[in-house]
Amino acid sequence: MFYGDNIRWWVGTVKATDPENQGRFKVRIHGLHSDEVEDKYLPYAQALIPTTEPGTSGLGLSPQLQPSAFVFGIFLDGKQSQLPLILGSMPHTQVPSSVQRENSRSSSNFFKDGDRQASSIYSGKVTPVIVTDDMVALYNDGKANADERRMILMKILTDEGLSPRAAAGVVGNLAIESLYQGIRFNPDAAKVDRVESSYGLAQWNANVERYQMLVEFTANQETPVPWNDFFGQVKFLVHDMKTNPAHEVWTDLSNDSLVGEINVNVKDFSNPAWLFLKRYEVAIETHWPQRVQQAQIAEKQWYASLAKTRNPGVQ
After folding, report:
1. Which residues sit opposite 75 in a β-bridge?
2. In the CATH scheme, what is the code of domain 9-90?
3. pLDDT tens digit string along 95-147?
4. Total-model pTM
5. How many CB atoms within 10 Å of residue 131?
6. Which of helix, strand or coil describes residue 1?
7. Can you tell me the distance from the alpha carbon of 169 to that of 183, in angstroms, rounded to the nearest whole number?
8. Which CATH architecture has domain 98-310?
9. CA 284 to chain centre
């Protein structure tokens, strides 16, 4: 559009997508837009797409950036800086800073499983997750099969307030993350390589201190358990989803009006499987079809188990 004599580069954070679905994104450009500038006044940025796409209206794919994406680009109008163009995004992981974690420990007993003050993203006290004797018996010291473990997870998440569909979106991802030594929902799951060191049901990454948070949480239970205790990890998962300001997934997953279809073709936050993948796991789309399939299995199995409970004669 403009000859590039005065190219200005920028980095910023996507704050909102375009409600008209024109492939634009509201971007807060760091160093230009202060916190005093409300999101609604931020400029829309066009996004560059690869030349493998047709580039013609009605054909090809649209950019799939989501709010909180860290992006970089140039201004098409140079020094006037009113027409930002997104050239790409940069991977990043959102985790609480050391100061945030320390404040959480001191102000709200963050790692204790007891009465805690409500965080900014969860209204009401965060009460301990209830693990019943029936769940413990079903787990049977790790002898439970994948179906039984899946139903334990579904039961806990729905007891905590998630709809079966929202819970299934979480469980479908856990089924992929925790597949280890041929066992799904394996609390011993570990992936250690040059890129990451991740452990447990949700593959909490030690490189960004999520694994360390798990270890401290389980050690500070009323009855301390090791980090690889199945129920200890489930309690930490729920606690972290409810209280961690880095992702705020519980807020959206527990809002039934925001939870839509679990579908492999739906890649937005209405799909609970996609939301958990992108906001909690902060992961790429590895095994996305399998994650959706596992979520659909969890939801179907949950309703089948309810039907059998209500109608014992149903096969």
Report:
1. 84
2. 2.40.50.260
3. 444 444 444 434 333 333 322 233 333 333 456 788 999 999 999 999 999 99
4. 0.61
5. 18
6. coil
7. 19
8. Orthogonal Bundle (1.10)
9. 11
